[in-house]
Amino acid sequence: MDLGTPGQGIVHDKTSTLSNKTPFNPPTDEVYQPQDAIAVTTTSTLVMGGFGTLASAIQNTLTRQNYGAFGIFTRTGGTIALFAVMGGSYSFVKCASANLRERDDHYNSTLGGFFAGTMLGLRARSLPAVLGYGATMAIAMAAFDYTGGSLKGLHRDPDEDEFERKQSLRKNRRRPIGETLQDLGEGRGIYGPGYQERRRETLKQKYGVDVPQRSAAES
Question: How far apart (Å, rounded) are the C-alpha atoms in residues 91 and 89?
Fold first, then answer.
């Protein structure tokens, strides 16, 4: 950091800031916006409770004895509670950690995943199971968040035009026509400049067939 001359204020070194702007290390100079932990926890609990209800219904269907429609609550209702508690604890711990640290990074997902995993380990009623499930879930959620937090890959710039992005991708992956012809040869829809003239000369030399030249309007 360069203090510069008096009266000019503080001049920041931009090289250090730009070097940290990688896909896995977003810039940290952004102002943190606090999250509503209660609202996020409530939403996650309801959503995961819905998934738990679906899982409980599948379990109730696969049982040998018929417990009726309410068997998803009376027989396998613990699955609903487990899903709901795991989703709620993960979201609450993640948001609370982010608000306390004032940073939104993968460490928050690590803590949230650990507490969610411990909820799963409580069913075994064993301390090694609690720690094991917690550590496994923490590693999984940390890796998922650290690598972009999406199954579709890293988030794209919303201001970037999609057509321009695809055009740049095509240009980056486009091979020169000479290299393509050298590897594959002409044919199968791949033709180099002057192909029609070379083809006409070849047919005339080998077979004595004079192929008329097509005009630009016919082609």
Answer: 6
